[in-house]
Amino acid sequence: MPTFTRDTVEHLGQLAQIALTDEEATRMQGELNVIADSINKVQEVASDDVEPTANPVPLEAYLRPDVPEKPLSREDALAGAPATENGMFVAPRILGGEA
Amino acid sequence: MAEANELVKLTAAQMAEKIRNKEVSSRELVDAELNVIDAAEPDIHAFLHVSADEARAQADAFDKKNAAGETEGLPELAGVPIAIKDMIVTKGIETTAASKILEGWIPPYDATVITKLKAAGMPLLGKTNLDEFAQGSSTEHSAFGPTHNPWDTSRVPGGSGGGSASAVAAFEAPLALGTDTGGSIRQPGSLTGTVGVKPTYGGVSRFGAIAMASSLDQIGPVSRNVLDSALLQEIIGGHDVRDSTSIPMDVPPIVKAAREGYKRDLKGMKVGLVKQLGGDGYQPGVEARFNEAVKLLQDMGAEVVEVDCPHFDYALAAYYIIMPSEVSSNLARYDGMRYGLRVMPPAGVPQTAANMMAYTREAGFGDEVKRRIILGIYALSAGYYDAWYGSAQKVRTLIIDDFNKAFEKADVLVAPTSPTTAFKFGEKMNDPLTMYMSDIATIPANMAGTPAMSIPAGLSDDGLPVGFQFMAPQKHDEQMYKPAAALEAALEEQWGGPVWQSLKTPWLKSAK
After folding, report:
1. Cα distance from B213 to chain A (closest Cα, Å)?
2. Phi, psi of B172, rounded to the nearest 5 degrees
3. B282–chain A Cβ distance below 8 A for any pair
4. Is B160 considered catalytic here?
5. What is the Cβ-side half-sphere exposure of residue B415, based on CA atoms within 13 angstroms?
6. Catalytic: B205?
7. Cα distance from B226 to chain A (closest Cα, Å)?
8. A1 near B CB under 8 A
9. β strands within B420-491, DSSP E
10. β-strands B47-50, B465-471: how paired?
11. Is B109 exposed, middle or buried (0-12, 13-18, 19+ CB in 10 A)?
12. Contact of A97 with B355, CB cutoff 8 Å
């Protein structure tokens, strides 16, 4: 059974918040299975005694100097938004489409 | 005007010298480059946005300061124009990452590298084309159409930074900035006959670089010779408190190393030939140029040793798990709420925030980006996290170990940059795995955070450029600049000049 079934791709599309078309989902399923076969090989050498590395150059966490800076103005922060009103972002309603 | 066309063929360092000697103004250089851009763009399409007015104003401001003697202490490249990959934000200038989802977006701030370029008095010519969100190896995945390779416009310039590489190769700019996540500065450098550098991860601030895969992305220089890249990296490098992954150290002595390299004395240097990055799958003409270049390094006194990096064979697979995982997270911010595109659902579908997001992302992202987001979400899902993401992070450890062992035997590692020369448009578009193979030799350096660079190694039998890659230990970028400059000088002597002398440039004749 392939790693990516049609149902899996559709489910992932929902998680990714991308409204995939039927044609896209079909094409993507094939491509993702080819890629999955190829990248599965990472498991061959990933034994228990190997520590994972998240960042290639490990750095100590540090705090930057506590110097006051002028932040972006509200006008600048809103300048690229698709819709604003009274100095706020306007979003469509959050509830009501769960079904 | 023939004179202007000769001007654009100067290196950035030569341009800077003419500015200092008052033989040419920054404005004249900007105008000369803008004329070439006008003439070349219909065939090349290296730029998504040309900021002509801004560049002229910046040049005029520099010239005024220069005339008043107020440019003392500025970096050597002061007044020299530059092009910027459209993956880096520029205040007041449209920045799209070549995606429909950001079309028309005007950033309200500058990336740190842009702030530094402006402080250095370097005019910004415009924003260069790329694969959407820097995801690709050919610049065919730009939402605004592909960039063409100046060596043969029926071929790709490589990716994702094909716009920056082509702009420099076509003399539309003496310098450019790129971003390199898996080879996106070096691979297009290889395919267009330009120099491309990925500095040590954390050596150049990423503040203001649009995030693709945060543990791999790195801003770096694109130029026509090694010294120009060193001079540019010196300007943009160094610690930045705004980037928590920025290394708190000064820029290594890379300009000094490049100048030292041009003396062509490599006695005492050990060069490691990476066993895993060559042989099968590498175009014969690429291998031939590579082997000739290695011989030149030996002729200059370098000792060549073979190094074994067995886990490099797993680098591509691990990269194609880690990179999309980080992509899926970073690209979650494109939700139609705060900036960029918003597409409301069609009639009959509830007009909610969630549906708006899904229709916006469907319309705004291209195929490659969608595929990577979905692959990344899967790799990070509960059932597959250990098998894929966890394993890939372990492979990263093994690759770093391979590098560490190799650098016990050698000061610098070498390999061809790209397995092939520039390929035809469409040749690999429908075969993601074949396309991904284009970065097989560049990915290990991103996985390990080591600095790496590609310089032109001549032309293959097909008449197209071949790239030669150097890799150095973390935080020691100077160790690759010295042999790279030496090899560049030796190769130019062999050919009687730089590789771009073989480039046919009809657009330069039609430039005003």
Report:
1. 11
2. -80, -15
3. no
4. yes
5. 29
6. no
7. 25
8. no
9. 452-459, 465-471
10. unpaired
11. middle
12. yes
Say which of B202, B215, B375 has its CB closest to residue A32.
B375
Residue of chain A minimizing CA distance to B359: A19
**Tens digits of per-residue pLDDT, A15-62?**
999 999 999 999 999 999 999 999 999 999 999 999 999 999 988 888
Q: If you compute the radius of gyration of chain A from its CA atoms, what whole number of angstroms results?
A: 23
The secondary structure of residue B349, as a DSSP letter, is S
Residue B468's beta-bridge partner residues? B416, B455
Pairing outcome for strands A88-89 and B270-274 = unpaired
Cis bond upstream, residue B184 (ω within 30): no
Among A residues 28-57, those touching chain B with beta carbons less than 8 Å apart? 28, 31-32, 34-35, 38-47, 50-57
**How far are the Cα atoms of A92, B274, B436, B474 from residue B271, in angstroms, in the given order?**
60, 10, 27, 16
A41·B362 Cβ contact <8 A: no
Chain B residues within an 8 Å CB radius of A23: none
Bridge-based pairing state of the strands B82-85 and B195-198: unpaired
In whole angstroms, give the CA distance from residue B172 to residue B67. 26
CB contact (8 A) between residue B432 and residue A12: no
- Of the residues B218, B329, B395, the best mutation for testing chain A's interface (the one with the most A CB atoms within 10 Å of its CB) is B395
Rounded Cα distance, B491 and A80, in Å: 49
Distance (Å, whole) CA B155 – CA B142:
15
Low-confidence ranges of chain B (pLDDT < 70): 1-4
Which residue's entry shows tokens 């409301």? B344
Q: What is the pLDDT of residue A29?
A: 96
C-alpha to C-alpha distance for B271 and B259, rounded to whole angstroms: 19
Look at residue A1 in the predicted model and tell me its pLDDT. 54
Quote the tokens at residue B359: 């229709």
